[in-house]
Amino acid sequence: MTEACKAVLVAGVPARFGQSVWDAVGTVTAGRRKGLFYDEQAVVTQEPGPGKLSLAAIEAKQMTEFPEPGSTLPFGRAAPSAAGSMWGTSVRCPIAELVEMEELKRVTLKAEFVKLAVVVVLRDTSGQVLLTQRGQHMRTFPKCWVFPGGGVDEGESLTTAACRELHEETGLYASGGSMRPLCLWESVFPTSSQACLEAGQVKGHAVTVFMEAVLDQERAQQLVLQASECDACVWVPLEQLIRWHSTCASDTPPEGSLEESLAGCEGEDLKPCRIRPKQLQGIYPNDQGEGIGQGHLYAIAKLAEKARGCHTGDPVQKRPRVTGTSGGSSL
Predict the structure, then answer these.
(1) Residue ranges per domain, the chain?
(2) Where is this region: Disordered (predicted)?
(3) Beta carbons of 275 and 311 less than 8 angstroms apart
(4) Residues 53 and 63 sit within 8 Å (Cβ to Cβ)
């Protein structure tokens, strides 16, 4: 087993595929929060070496496993969505639910250790963010709209992997110095416990680090889409994405705003196309069979909080167990 397969560490121990990383980090409920479609806690992160990420509960900041101060970041995972949420339908993180139901033994785990991934939330200087649509042929999350990203290779730092993935998928360059960590997400596929049981396997389990980067508009237009993974792309004003999803309770999308199409591109030759906002609205898969990956929407929620100074949820409270049946994405 290569060291790259042991990329995510909790208390110095490699996180195992099929075991909840979010639960393993800490159990202090006072530091947890319930959002509109996610559970969240603050964690201390550090890269102990290339291709590795260590996580610890916020109370562990001075422990010996973190000899130097690390970055404190919000760490989210899928949770049942609030009634009527514009963010879409979400169910509980399938790994957490399979463990609680003692059903994990009924599914095949596709790896031994949790994967480390990185995603780039790329903005141009006008405030637009870049979304790409995963290919229909993809093994996981087909037709899902996401920010560019992928797995961290052995020997790569998070910023090096972020720059590489951004360039491979879009042809765009961003310097490592421009990258800023935003949040973490525990990603699982299939996206519900029932879907995992029906498939007889958990195909994907990763901790994804979302990084922010900004490009000037001239460089942002030098886009070359990786056709083997991406079917289409679109630049979307961040404020529009926030309005469409009613980030704060006081917000409602302007009437007619979901009918105004956006200028996008598709295919390797970047053929112009129109992207309907309803293709982008809500957690993948939405009623259009598209939508945005849930972890990517979580990153949008974090950007919205930074911009507006409001939270998208309240402290975690005890709630009835909800068994995932359909909808909701852990990407």
Answers:
(1) 3-314
(2) 310-331
(3) no
(4) no
CA–CA dist 29, 27 (Å, integer): 6
- Segment-wise mean pLDDT, segments of 10 residues, the chain, 331 residues: 74 94 79 89 93 85 47 94 81 96 95 97 95 92 95 95 97 93 96 95 96 92 91 94 64 52 90 94 91 96 83 41 42 76
Contact in structure between 89 and 283 (CB atoms under 8 Å):
yes
CA 311 – CA 130 distance, rounded (Å): 24
CB hemisphere CA count around 11 (13 angstroms): 10
CB 51 within 8 A of CB 159: no
Q: Which residues partner with 212 through β-bridges?
A: 121, 180
Structure tokens at 209: 């680090």
User: Is the Cβ–Cβ distance between 172 and 215 less than 8 Å?
Assistant: yes
Residues 3-314: name the CATH superfamily: Nucleoside Triphosphate Pyrophosphohydrolase (3.90.79.10)
